[in-house]
Amino acid sequence: MTDLEQRERSTTGESGRPAGRTGLLPGLFFAALWASASAATKFGVQSVHPLILANVRFFIAGTGILLVAYSMPRIRKAQSGRTWPTRTEFKRIAVFALLNTTIYLGAFVLALKEVSAGIGSLSTATSPLFITLLSALWLRRVPRRTELGGLVLGLAGVCVATYPLLKDAHATVQGLLILLVGMISVSAATVYYARFDWRLPTLIFNGWQVLIGGVLLLPFTLLFADFGAARYAGRFWASVFWLIIPVSVVALQFWFFLVRKDPVRASLWLFLCPIFGFLYANILLDEPITAWTVAGTALVIGGLWLGRKQ
């Protein structure tokens, strides 16, 4: 093969199409759907207490995923006849579910009662920065300056974007602190997940962790949720449907496709999530987009770029 042919092949791929173009539409669909979770949650918490919304979503999604997974011959074959996690796997799944579903998603819906949907989406985009820092601490190595700088930029961006919203009652300090707890928890869950060689198929694992997360959240929902004020009308069920199907199922399938193609490029699509999130919040919920919003989003994107530079 000549040098010219090698250069052409490296830029076009085996099929002759430009490299990376096959991931363009999946990447855009992933970012657009994933960012819509904040707006959908914001609609849902207008009808019921946030914990009720979370528990209904977890029980329906977890049960549905497990029913589909256990009915698939491919899953049964992959498990060589073992269709249930072992006792050790159940313990590990429970820890992951507590961090990833009960605490993180529980905190997320609680916070969305007190902060704008745009800020919720912007905060979600900072999770890779926390994951990088926690991974460094877990491996007992000194974080790189780019990692620390990225985290500082990301948090500064959230603060800048939030500043005018605090004055206009679109956000509260309590809501931001709840979001922060959630982001640390989901980042810890990701680092914990990476410690083990999981033998279960992805669908089985995901179904159990969502269902167990709902079970662990249920006592808090029963204690603190106001069931009397709940309105199980069309807006509530539309929110539940959107959070389960387009977000938890379709968006994740696009994500898995992107990660299989190129994990590094896949992570870059997270940069678009805050932009889509603020657009949804502005169009659907009439939340303001100001110069502070643009500056804060730019800082978060810059932090993501710096934190992943190496």
Describe the structure.
- This protein has 310 residues and is an all-alpha fold.
- The protein has one domain.
- Helix content is 75%, strand content 0%.
- The protein has helices at residues 3-12, 24-44, 50-70, 73-78, 87-111, 117-124, 127-138, 145-167, 173-193, 202-224, 234-261, 263-268, 273-285, 291-307.
- It is globular and about 55 Å long.
Give the tags.
310 residues, mainly alpha, 14 helices, disordered N terminus
Q: Which structural category do the helix and sheet elements fall into?
A: mainly alpha
The helix tally amounts to: 14
- Proportion of beta-strand residues: under 5%
Number of strands: 0
Quick description:
This protein has 14 helices and no strands. It is mainly alpha-helical and 310 residues long. The protein has one domain.
Layout of strands and helices, then pairs:
Blueprint: H1 3-12, H2 24-44, H3 50-70, H4 73-78, H5 87-111, H6 117-124, H7 127-138, H8 145-167, H9 173-193, H10 202-224, H11 234-261, H12 263-268, H13 273-285, H14 291-307
